[in-house]
Design a protein that fits this description.
It is a single chain. The protein has helices at about 1-30, 75-100, 105-135, 140-170, 175-200, and strands at about 30-35, 40-45, 50-55, 60-65, 70, 205, 210-215, 220-225, 230-235, 240-245, 255-260, 270-280, 295-305, 315-320. It is of the alpha+beta class and about 325 residues long. The chain has 3 domains: about 30-40 and about 235-320, Beta Barrel (Elongation Factor Tu (Ef-tu), domain 3); about 40-75 and about 200-235, OB fold (Dihydrolipoamide Acetyltransferase, E2P); about 80-195. A 6-stranded antiparallel β-barrel has the order 1-10-13-12-11-14. A 4-stranded antiparallel β-sheet has the order 2-9-7-4, with no helix packed on it. Strands 6-5-3-8 form a 4-stranded antiparallel β-sheet, with no helix packed on it. A hairpin with a 5-residue loop joins strand 11 and strand 12. The two termini are about 50 Å apart.
């Protein structure tokens, strides 16, 4: 009995010595921090509303960046695009007409009208001259002379109008009209591009590599713009969020290589300190230890360079930072 008590005391003494000496040994090998794999996820939805036509992946499926995840019924958007394309064609045609100016036939027609008006004016002028001479000799009345004068003035005005019309036909459309037509064409093209973008937005693609966490909607559902249909857990890159107290802050330098281990695997991952927060905060409940419960710490982010499926989001990890 006494021998057993002596052995027990020796074991307790050895354990106490190991406990008291271990921190120094650990600090000699490196600074040990505790943290978690960052939970990085994104809710995916369409930028336009419509009826869901396809949902191509289930929860737990791995997807790569650019993979088509879901699509909407695109027929309404295709109709809008066709209408916008027709508007562009019409605006282009109107601009082409203005830039081309008057056709040769139109100019010839305007010149013919000038000739006709000139002949009518000449005839009216001669009739007025005749009536004035007859009235001067007392062979015609003043009323007939006044009528001849009115017809001459009317013919003169008509001749001036046809000459102006000919000048406009030769000169072509105004520069302001062409500028307005160009602006109308630009607006039509913008509407066409907008319709094309909306048609493309009817396809939902994965922005990054990841794993489908939740499938929120099913085909046939009518969704509005921005409504989530998938939740994607991002797998590139893997980050670890850890915290360091002020006394050890100088040992954590961005760019430092670190070792990351988990409780569920014997593998040691290689990481690199990428970010150290300039602002102190209280230790989060998920990583605090009794001695750090009331201390201020600084958050740091570690990029894992050789991550695999052994690191899952939210998993607690141990980070060893060399102190040499």
């Amino acid at each position: 009995m006494r021998k057993a008590i002596v052995v027990l005391v020796l074991l307790l003494a050895a354990g106490f010595a190991a406990y008291t000496l271990w921190p120094r040994h650990a600090l000699q090998d490196g600074l040990m921090l505790y943290g978690n794999v960052d939970i990085r996820e994104v809710q995916l939805g369409f930028r336009v509303g419509g009826r869901l036509e396809q949902m191509l992946f289930e929860e737990g499926d791995a997807v790569t960046a650019g993979t088509l995840l879901a699509s909407l019924d695109s027929q309404p958007l295709q109709d809008s695009l066709a209408l916008a394309q027709a508007g562009v064609a019409g605006a282009e045609a109107r601009l082409a007409v203005l830039r081309a100016g008057s056709r040769p036939q139109e100019i010839q027609q305007a010149r013919a009208r000038v000739a006709e008006a000139g002949a009518a004016h000449k005839n009216a002028e001669q009739e007025y001259t005749r009536q004035r001479e007859l009235t001067g000799k007392g062979l015609s009345s003043q009323g007939l002379l006044d009528n001849a004068l009115a017809r001459r003035d009317e013919a003169s005005a008509r001749l001036a109008a046809t000459r102006q019309a000919l000048a406009l036909a030769v000169e072509g459309p105004r520069a302001e009209d062409i500028v307005a037509a160009e602006a109308a064409l630009a607006g039509a093209k913008a509407q066409r591009d907008q319709a094309a973008t909306q048609l493309e937005d009817a396809r939902l693609v994965a922005p990054n590599n990841g794993v489908v966490l939740t499938r929120v909607r099913e085909p046939g559902a009518v969704v509005s713009a921005g409504m989530p249909v998938y939740t994607l857990s991002l797998t590139d890159m893997i980050y670890v969020r850890a915290y360091v107290d002020e006394s050890n802050l100088g040992k954590v330098v961005p760019g430092t290589k670190v070792a990351v281990t988990t409780d569920s695997s014997g593998r040691e991952y290689v990481g690199q300190v990428g970010f150290v927060s300039p602002r102190a905060e209280f230790t989060p409940k998920s990583v605090e230890t009794p001695e750090l419960r009331t201390d201020l710490v600084y958050r740091l982010r570690i990029v894992i360079q050789d991550a695999d499926d052994g690191l899952r989001q939210g998993m607690p990890v141990t980070v060893t930072i060399p102190t040499a």
